[in-house]
Amino acid sequence: RSAVQVNPPKALGNLGSVLSSQGRYEEAQEALIEAIKHRPNMADVHFNLGILYQNQQSHKAAVECFRKAIQFRPNLAVAFLNLGASLIALGRCREAAQILKDGTQLHGTGVRDRAAHDNARISSYLQLGALYAEQGKLQRALAVYREALHALPSTYY
User: Fold this and answer.
1) Residue 4 belongs to what domain range?
2) Same domain, 82 and 132
3) What total of structural domains would you count in the chain?
4) Each residue of 108-153: pLDDT tens digit?
5) Where are the annotated TPR repeats, by residue (predicted)?
């Protein structure tokens, strides 16, 4: 907590992540919201707050956070994946399908962790295929799964 004085937005964002991992969700939410007040353009903090809301089944709030994360970091594939999942939970399947498709197309130029980026992209394919299968659109699902196989990078695990 002493780092909060030196770099409040970064420290509060990190504190929020730590508190969340400890199951202290209310405190984590407060820290993440405070970090955003200090620096509204921190994509990671918006994403982490979205995950917190998603884990609490607050999908409407999660959607807003994931959209903000994407706004500030348009190549954050994991935000597309989680946005799609929250939209599905809200019954907004057509919108989710488009978001997941968009997530599969992210090239990842300049991303910090290429393997994590590629894993999120492939997971978007899998989520999209599952959505189509659940809707009874089996040919579409099969086509998406085939695309996923062709898109598999050597780093995929």
Assistant:
1) 1-73
2) yes
3) 2
4) 888 989 999 999 999 999 999 999 999 999 999 999 999 999 999 8
5) 9-42, 43-76, 122-155
